[in-house]
Specification:
The complex is a heterodimer of chains A (112) and B (118). Chain A contains no helices and nine strands. Chain A is mostly beta strands. Chain A has a five-stranded mixed β-sheet, with no helix packed on it. The N and C termini of chain A lie far apart (37 Å). In chain A, 35% of the residues are buried. In chain B, 0% of the residues lie in helices and 49% in strands. In chain B, strand 7 and strand 8 form a beta hairpin. The termini of chain B are far apart. Classes of the chains: A mainly beta (112), B mainly beta (118). The interface between A and B is medium-sized, with 25 and 29 residues.
Chain lengths: 112, 118
Amino acid sequence: DAKTTQPPSMDCAEGRAANLPCNHSTISGNEYVYWYRQIHSQGPQYIIHGLKNNETNEMASLIITEDRKSSTLILPHATLRDTAVYYCIVRVAPSGNTPLVFGKGTRLSVIA
Amino acid sequence: GAVVSQHPSWVICKSGTSVKIECRSLDFQATTMFWYRQFPKQSLMLMATSNEGSKATYEQGVEKDKFLINHASLTLSTLTVTSAHPEDSSFYICSARDPASGLDNEQFFGPGTRLTVL
């Protein structure tokens, strides 16, 4: 799986958009970009994933650059409950026995 | 989405005792489950892959005789920390993928078990 680079921490004001960047310059053509988050003392939670096109769901939007070497996770209106560590993971589409490998992630603090 | 549960959510034990942690897929069958360990302020580290009906596959540096994994059924995997010591104190998390959910779907994680060894 390709390596990802994320800033160690970010702050965001409550109600504002949180934009979390991720660099994955060695991504291969068949690798997806996945985002998970982990709220303190809980298991990770899936947020969104994409291959080439931008994606949006009820939680967030994922913007992938045209060359696919970087992406941005956008939480449109951050709340205090979005305070968590956000992990960007690049991997091929999962089969049954391929685990997720986590990097260090970005610790997002949403401030009132 | 699919639900993965863990039991217990936390456990405190004395040094030298063994502790069993259960991971269950509640509404799907999982032939494969994964066990992770997370120390404070660190990321999740994969410990092993649990395969139903066969032996687990351990990551390098993880002692298979210390961390016993049994995947007894398609909905249950157990991790037993044998002869626990304070350095085994950690947050243990399991995950599973619902194979019926789609080709590139997400993996579902349990809520984690916090183990404290005194």
